[in-house]
């Protein structure tokens, strides 16, 4: 089992704490996979400022390979955040910094490198959508985080979902069970084989065209909810592919066994993501900063 996260790396700048924490959807998923004992890598774009230097330092310390990243002069991605009663409130960002100006264009060397992984996870902030078909032709599973951007953006959703084995999305708070099923059925009809929809503290749903599985949340007194969704996605992917490695035949041919493993993965994801809410930042590793450098946002 090997996972690569492709897309954004940022630092989340907590203005009310004068601290920043490494993060970004794709980078978070790679780090959380590593925390769960899986070989992982991150592929993205770094600037040449203190944010870029710090994120690379943390990835190296954690043993997450980032040897195929690009480096450009300019500001790395960052987002400004405040914490209000444990809920992170985004105040603005520089839209991923140099990644926006210099998006990843996959080379043959990149494709050879990526082909060794069990799954490639891509964030909706990756500026990478026009490269996904190249990954699809490698015939490795693609996981995509649609976050909440899929709402009212069905044409875009369909254009990406056709290439995906896994699709992760955030549900509108007011969604009824009937609406949730309809959302997931529609995305499945676009070609996405497995859809995992999180609904905050209300729990999460899995749909594969046959079964709609619900997993309640593990309730904790959250210190910081940043990274909860990424940790959930990472845990689902890690446990699914470990199950394939352990028993490919039963996962492929025994549907009851497969469903049991999916339920187990969702239980572990609920537990892991709840624990993530008990620390500041997505996965800790804070650095003191001068918040005045970022308040322009």
Give a brief description.
It is built from 10 helices and 14 strands.
Structure report:
This protein has 297 residues and is an alpha/beta fold. It has one domain (2-285): Ribokinase (UDP-N-acetylmuramoyl-L-alanine:D-glutamate ligase, 3-Layer(aba) Sandwich). It is 36% helix and 24% strand. It is built from 10 helices and 14 strands. The strands form 2 sheets. The chain has a 9-stranded mixed sheet with strand order 5-4-1-8-9-10-11-12-13, sandwiched between helices. A 5-stranded mixed sheet has the order 7-6-2-3-14. Strand 10 (166-170), helix 7 and strand 11 (194-198) form a beta-alpha-beta unit. Helix 1 (25-35) crosses helix 8 (228-246) and helix 8 packs antiparallel against helix 10. The longest helix has 22 residues, at 255-276. The chain is globular, with a radius of gyration of 18 Å. 44% of the residues are buried.
Number of helices: 10
Shape: globular
- From N to C, what is the helix and strand string? EEEHEHEEEHHEHEHEHEEEHHHE
Structural class: alpha/beta
Helical percentage:
25-40%
- What are the low-pLDDT stretches, counting only 5+ consecutive residues below 50? none
Largest sheet: 9 strands, mixed
- Sheet with most strands: strand arrangement: 5-4-1-8-9-10-11-12-13
> Could you tell me the strand content as a percent range?
15-25%
The termini sit apart by 40 Å
CATH topology: UDP-N-acetylmuramoyl-L-alanine:D-glutamate ligase
The CATH architecture assignment turns out to be: 3-Layer(aba) Sandwich
CATH superfamily, please? Ribokinase
CATH class: Alpha Beta
Radius of gyration: 18 Å
The number of strands is 14
Q: What is the total number of structural domains?
A: 1
Mean of residue pLDDT?
95
């Amino acid at each position: 089992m090997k996972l690569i996260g492709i897309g954004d790396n940022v630092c989340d700048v907590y203005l009310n704490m004068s601290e920043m924490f490494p993060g970004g959807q794709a980078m978070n998923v790679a780090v959380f996979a590593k925390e769960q004992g899986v070989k992982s890598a991150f592929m993205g774009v770094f600037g040449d400022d203190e944010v870029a230097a710090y994120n690379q330092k943390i990835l190296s310390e954690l043993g997450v390979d980032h040897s195929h990243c690009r480096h450009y002069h300019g500001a790395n991605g960052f987002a400004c955040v405040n914490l209000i009663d444990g809920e992170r409130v985004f105040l603005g960002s520089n839209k991923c910094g140099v990644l926006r100006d210099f998006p990843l264009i996959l080379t043959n060397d990149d494709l050879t490198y990526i082909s060794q992984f069990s799954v490639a996870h891509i964030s909706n902030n990756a500026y990478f959508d026009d490269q996904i078909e190249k990954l699809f032709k490698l015939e490795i599973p693609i996981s995509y985080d649609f976050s909440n951007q899929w709402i009212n953006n069905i044409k875009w959703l369909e254009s990406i979902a056709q290439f995906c084995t896994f699709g992760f999305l955030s549900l509108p708070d007011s969604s009824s069970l009937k609406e949730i099923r309809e959302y997931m059925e529609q995305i499945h009809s676009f070609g996405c084989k497995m859809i995992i929809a999180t609904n905050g503290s209300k729990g999460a749903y899995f749909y594969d065209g046959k079964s709609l599985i619900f997993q309640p949340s593990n309730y904790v007194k959250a210190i910081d909810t940043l990274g909860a969704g990424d940790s959930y996605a990472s845990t689902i992917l890690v446990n699914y592919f470990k199950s394939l490695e352990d028993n490919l035949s039963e996962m492929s041919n025994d549907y009851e066994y497969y469903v049991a493993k999916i339920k187990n993965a969702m239980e572990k994801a609920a537990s892991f993501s709840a624990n993530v809410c008990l620390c500041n930042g997505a996965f800790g590793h804070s650095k003191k900063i001068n918040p005045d450098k970022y308040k322009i946002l």
